[in-house]
Amino acid sequence: DPNATQHRTAFHFQPEQNWMNGQSLLPSLALCPMYYMGFYHLFYQYNPLGPTWGRIVWGHAVSTDLIHWQHLEVALDADHWYDEKGVWSGSGSFLEDGTPVLIYTGWSNTSTQTQNMALPADKSDPLLRQWVKVPQNPIAVAPPGFSSDKFRDPTTAWKGPDGEWRILVGSSEGEDNRDGTALLYKSKDFSTWQFSRPLHSVNGTGMWECPDFFPVRLSGKLGVEPSSLGPGVKHVLKISSEDKKHDYYVVGNYSIETDTFVPDSPQLDAGLGLRYDYGKLYASKTFFDQFTSRRINFGWINESDSEEADVSKGWASIMGIPRKIWLDVNAPTDLLQWPVEEVEKLRISNVSRENFTLGAGSVVPLEGVIGVQLDIEVSFELPDMGQAPTPTELLAESGQSVCKRTGAELNILGPFGLLVLATADLLEQTAVYFQFVQSKEGWRTLFCSDQSQSSLDPYVDTTTYGTYVRVSEFDPLLSLRILVDHSVVESFAQGGRAVITSRVYPKHALDSSARIFLFNNGTQNITTHHINVWNMNGVKMTNFN
Ligand code: DQQ
What we know:
Elements: H1 4-7, E1 18-26, E2 40-47, E3 57-63, E4 69-76, E5 86-94, E6 100-107, E7 113-120, E8 131-133, E9 140-141, E10 151-152, E11 158-159, E12 165-173, E13 179-187, E14 194-202, E15 208-217, E16 233-241, E17 246-255, E18 260-263, E19 274-275, E20 282-289, E21 294-301, H2 307-313, E22 315-316, E23 318-319, E24 323-327, E25 335-339, E26 347-358, E27 362-370, E28 373-381, H3 399-406, E29 416-422, E30 430-439, E31 442-450, E32 465-469, E33 477-485, E34 488-493, E35 498-503, E36 515-520, E37 526-536, E38 542-543
Parallel strand pairs: 1-22, 4-38
Antiparallel strand pairs: 1-2, 2-3, 3-4, 5-6, 6-7, 7-8, 7-9, 10-12, 11-12, 12-13, 13-14, 15-16, 16-17, 17-18, 17-19, 20-21, 21-23, 21-24, 24-25, 26-37, 27-36, 28-33, 28-37, 29-30, 29-36, 30-31, 31-32, 33-34, 34-35
This protein binds 2,5-dideoxy-2,5-imino-D-mannitol.
2,5-dideoxy-2,5-imino-D-mannitol binds near residues 88, 105, 152 and 283.
């Protein structure tokens, strides 16, 4: 692959080489002063032997700002009978004295999935380089009636006022093993764990990987620590659907007395709920960052090129930019997501323009900006819906299917938005845009990311992504924030109400050949309220020595 180097990201986390997938996290340790060096720890699924999935171990990196990472040695190797075929996903927790603990899934020598625990060899090492697997491993095997190959990915632990610790493990149940479920385990001492019950299940949804269960405040952007309860919080259950390869979440009420979780909107997407990302993001996990009181979600983004391309590149997969998440007070079944503010430190030269018209059918280059490492903020004034003719067709399709069908082509109200990673002749372009369609409920706003012309390479997946995004009558503007980093485009609409991540592999829109255009393929003029574009510094990820 001649463009392998150009497609490597500059400010998204990647190992130096090889394969990476779903991960687990520990925040910096602030509870215990001996850890006060303020390191964020990222543990990720890593194949040391090559750029495809295989015998997985835990890679490890540390950062003081969630953006600049330093690679450390493997934290957990596949070296015991219970994890000999792979050290799979898990989570970090803190005991009350501040000791960090890892609980993870081992793929055993007989191909069963087991839950195991590891403790730091030296609690006074702020880098937590060495981990010791506890002698009582495995701490859990699949309970009777559950299949031992569908039992994995323990969550961060939380503790009830009854003194009992709790974790969830992803699984599936039912006659045909198709009912996705999160199994609750309890422990009085964090050492011996007992199966309690399924906390939540949804029929027909298949295996649930990487569950995540955490409290969120009813209002405000601050996060809360994992064991928070009470009337001021709701709980979020996120699962990674093995069938659909997407992360879904539901907001609901958790009762610690009965250990039951009741989603507020059980009907959403057949019970799976809402998506964190309508493009690519999987096996994401949140953690509570005590230093800044944020809840931060970190997700894995795989490639959209072929396995042969990954082998020739020598690497596969990246991490998304960590996202701060909080409950949307105006739509309390929804979370809002926004890139952590630390990424803004990478911003360098800025180009901005205000208040200009995008004529119907226009494609306008944004002068003065070239490059493949960008942070973009753009907002548009809402067009006058009154002028639009009554459509003959009332849509009941999903957002993605409308985006796919219509693409960035001519429509009445929109599409309008940006072309990024575009060549001057527009033969390569990734379109991120809005469009309005009429449905039975009235006007709806579509948010799309169209990769169909992103590359002249015919061997990459160029699926179009899209979703409806909520626009309230009080919203003054339609807005987008887009992070572009070589082969990844992460787009946040309406302040983080919907997010779409896409992977693209231009052959020509590389380095200084990549441009930005604004476009309006609608039949009505659109006013751009403002556009700000920053070139972004890259981050050198080094080995820690
Ligand atoms: N991959 C891991 C599993 C998890 C899945 C194995 C998510 O633990 O269920 O590499 O990507």
